Every structure is written in C-alpha cells, then in structure tokens.
Amino acid sequence: MNMRSAITILFVFFTGIFAQAQYTVHKVINLGYVYQNQSFGEVGGKLMFLKNDDVIYRLGASALMGSTNSQFAIMPKLQADVLLNFQKDVDFYHSYYFIMGAEATNKYVAPKIGVTLFGLLDLTGGYAFPVADAKLNGKELKGVNVNFTLNIPIVAIYDMFK
Question: Which residue of 85, 107, 136, 140 has the fewest CB atoms within a 10 Å radius of its CB?
Fold first, then answer.
C-alpha cells in the first residue's frame, strides 16, 4: 500500500468517527514556518473538533513552499493533532494546551509534540522519517522537524470585515 492510500484511509476513518459524535467544528486558516532540513513557509486550513475544551482534535491540510537546492518547491502536507488540557473549571488554565500529533507529506512522515497558546499560536517539534527514498530536488528531508504556526479562526476574519 502506498503512502497516499494510507493517508486517505486514515482521513476517511477519522472523518467517520467525528461525523457520528456531537462535536462542534471550527474552521481555521493557518500560516507558519516549518524547518525540515530546509526552511519552508506554510499556508493551509484546519478543522477543529471539540466536545468540551479539555480535548480538541484538529485535522489539517496545507502547502509547504520553499527553495531547495536553488529550486522553488511546493509539497502538500496533511496533519492530525490532539490538544490536551485537563484543568477543570478554570478557564485561565485553558490558555495553553499540549499538542500530540503527526504530519505527513509525499516526502516524509513526522510525529510531533508541542504546546499551543489559546489554540492560536503553536510551537511543535518532532523527527521526520523519509518515505521510501523520496527526495525534494535532490535533498533528503529527514531529521529534526520544527513548526511555528499561527492559527486564525475564520469567524474572526468574517467579524473583522462586517
């Protein structure tokens, strides 16, 4: 089974789980920076699924854009995250969440952990494992993975232009 089929199956599986539960869904635009043996800019979108504010699930798709070996390159990226904060009845403590997740491109797969502030500003790190012997413009993308992401809720953008 190739990587694309595996990611599609996982996406359909998780979408089916969330469709049956009574979760609130929020749409988010994300902009960020990714270091993966190379610097990339990131633009994309995420869906946040939450039932209460202790555990939040996020699914996202984005494009990584950057220059590798003096050639511009764009890679698609899929990601899934779980945000955790189990402080009860105190909203101030829900200003931060711990993140566990994974991201996958057509060149690498990277499990990651990190922290987010209000669900708006993420800082995560992990380790990327190459898919087969895939290279981007001759450069292998493996090793330490660092992500810095700004998540902008669509509702905030809509309210800004009212």
Answer: 140
